[in-house]
Amino acid sequence: MLDRLSPRPGSRRPTKRVGRGPGSGLHKTAGRGVKGQGKRSPGRETPFHFEGGQMALARRLPKRGFHNPFRTTYRIVNVGALDRFAPGDTVDPETLERLGVVAHGRDGVKLLGEGDAPRGLVVRVHKASASARKKIEDAGGTLEIIE
Hints:
This protein is α/β, with parallel strands linked by helices. The chain has helices at 57-60, 93-98, 130-138, and strands at residues 74-78, 90-91, 108-112, 122-125, 127-128, 142-145.
């Protein structure tokens, strides 16, 4: 069956063969118009944010405040999201990433207290709110902070 698959009629068009003379339907300028920056050879000789010589938006807007390049950003997990684990399971950032509860990357995982905590989990995260800590411990689990 797979060897007989083909695209739906009309969904594929032949590639545009530019610079092939007047008979191609794209004649001498090959669809690039006459003169100017877009006619030149490398298709993108200006940076993507270039505005034709006008003062760029990034330079027109005022800059305010301090942007800390060393800021730590945590991936957030609520206590209610841990209901997929069985009692006695160890929950750590690697497990959460593998199951798709949190996205990959960033600096760490922070546990927040929204929802009901499942019973008897061992949770290892980088940070936790006071309410999350209380809910985990009230449910008979333990919370360890990773340094």
